[in-house]
Task: structure prediction
Amino acid sequence: MIEGGAVLELIKAHIAKRKLVQAAVQEMAKELGVEGGVTNRLEGNLLGVIFPGDRHPDFKAPDRNGVCYPKKNSEWAKRLAAAPRYQPASIVISDALGVPTDLHYTSQNCYGSTGIGHPFQECGFLYLSESGPFAMWIPDVPGEVALMEAEGKTVKDPAKSFVPEFDGCRRIDREEWDFVVAQYQLQKKRKQAEGEKA
Result:
């Protein structure tokens, strides 16, 4: 659970960047007069659009899903390429907090490395609104290190010495986060009911 410190500032900056990217996508969609589109799942930028009628001449014919992508070297291809993007939360967290997302090891006469967690989602943020509550997840680095050492492998740093403790954060169980979400939704529902009575 994120309650303060540098990690709170980190998630707020990430949310602000996501909002900026989403606003840019909406502005481009409005300018093109499109009814839908495809965004980059990791970075949020606009990749292709669905035109309700005639397509813009800078775009190719629709694919089988009705999505039109910009023609190479067209003005819109340049604009979409230059559009703002955000870094994936996994990269933001691992870079800023030094969270290892892979393990490097040696074993007798060999060496190797392996990833920890789900690819591209090793770490992430959880939040219900811009004002919180906030949480994040990271891989169980000490647990993975212990498993590899039980197999007779020697794990190298930074994973070997990583301690998952961050200023302003406390470890919670999934059930506690579920409880926080339920409280938030109940409070939101009560506020809506009070607003309807007024």
The longest strand covers residues 102-107.
